[in-house]
Amino acid sequence: MTRVKRSIHARKKRRALLDRSKGYVGRANNTYRQAKETQLKAGVYAYRDRRNRKRDFRKLWITRINAAARLNDLTYGKLIHGLTLAGIEIDRKSLADLAVRDAEAFAAVATAAKDALAAKA
User: Which residues lie closer than 8 Å to 107 by C-beta, 6 or more apart?
Assistant: First the structure.
């Protein structure tokens, strides 16, 4: 079997990894071994944080909805319960957008939730 020289392919692979590690601190941006470990860790962080981003945005939406609900004399939990009783199906992202951009529309939604809560009680 003939001998295969890997020099060009190996160098190309290393150069590509070092190009991806631009901006890293210390030896992690110019030493192959450090850069390789840092790239592996970066991939783990990216995977984890793609999931955490969803969690963080939901937390932000709930905070915004709660603040707007309190301006309309409701708590977040009572607002969501009232919306469920009223049969209004609106997701938290859209509700938070209403709370920030259109206070009158959010007030109308909050009034509907209040009426549904009053009808139940």
Answer: 72
Q: Are 69 and 79 in contact (CB under 8 A)?
A: yes
Which two structure tokens, joined as six digits, stand for 113?
């939730």
pLDDT tens over the chain, length 121 residues:
898 888 899 999 999 999 999 999 999 999 999 999 999 999 999 999 999 999 999 999 999 999 999 999 999 999 999 999 999 999 999 999 999 999 999 999 999 999 999 998 7
Q: What is the pTM of this model?
A: 0.81
Please tell me the distance from the alpha carbon of residue 77 to that of residue 85, in angstroms, as a whole number. 12
Residue of 23, 58, 55 whose CA lies nearest to 39: 23
Buried b vs exposed e over 65-82: b needs ≥16 C-beta within 10 Å? bbebbeebebebeebbbb
